[in-house]
Amino acid sequence: MKPRRGQRSSIRRKGLPYAPGRHLEAPKDLEAVRAVLSGRPEAFESIVRDYQNLVASVAYRLGVPRDDIEDAVSEVFVKIYRNLDSYRPEFSLSTWIYRISTNHVLDTLRRARHRPLATELSPALSDPSPSPSEKLAARQMAERVREALLEVPEKYRLPIVLMHVEGRSIEEIAAILSLPTGTVKTRLARGRGRLAQVLRRRCPDLMEGVP
Questions:
Q1: Are 67 and 96 part of one and the same domain?
Q2: Of the candidate ranges 37-51, 112-126, 131-145, the one whose mean pLDDT is the lowest
Q3: Is the same domain home to 105 and 155?
Q4: Within this chain, do residues 154 and 183 fall inside the same structural domain, yes or no?
Q5: How many domains does the chain have?
């Protein structure tokens, strides 16, 4: 089951409006899941409407080319629909969808021999109203950090992206990656260490004054 064309076209390819960590869980989420599982597939449309921007954000930030984002979103929702009976209410629906989206995107990128990456490292790097030169400098710095991040092994890179790009908490990352919170903390610490090593080698000017 795929999102309708009108729903697909509503996904904004620039500035994807989903705000990580700010989606409000609604009682209607569980109602929609129960409705679909009880034989009312039309109820799935509300899940698509509520979460298509979250899925698009995952695809975009992990490196899916812009022209392929809508297809990736459709593929993820097909997988969500087919696996809806495995959803457990003790987890928020957004976290469950995020985990499916992340796994699907990573698998797709591996098959396509692309390396997953974060295309926007931090929109907060710059001033709220920067000058053109400041914008350019921020973009250049973000690109340098992005390239350095690609040298960090995936098992360390993904928690970094989830925390520092998507704004996810330790608990959310643990749920998304199906890992204990202690493992997430360890991978974050090691990932930051690996990233710092790469940055010192590739971008020593960015690491001035950093111990």
A1: yes
A2: 112-126
A3: no
A4: yes
A5: 2
99 and 13, same domain (yes or no): yes
Which domain does 166 fall in, by range? 131-207
By percentage, how much of the chain surpasses pLDDT 90?
35
pLDDT band at 147 (very low <50, low <70, confident <90, very high): confident
Question: Which pair of tokens denotes residue 18?
Answer: 């989903």
76, pLDDT greater than 60: yes
The three-state (H, E, C) secondary structure of the chain, written as one string? CCCCHHHHHCCCCCCCCCCCCCCCCCHHHHHHHHHHHCCCHHHHHHHHHHHHHHHHHHHHHCCCCHHHHHHHHHHHHHHHHHCHHHCCCCCCHHHHHHHHHHHHHHHHHHHCCCCCCCCCCCHHHCCCCCCHHHHHHHHHHHHHHHHHHCCCCHHHHHHHHHHHHCCCCHHHHHHHHCCCHHHHHHHHHHHHHHHHHHHHHHCHHHHCCCC
Asked whether residue 16 falls in the same domain as residue 69, the answer is yes
Assess whether pLDDT exceeds 60 at residue 21. no
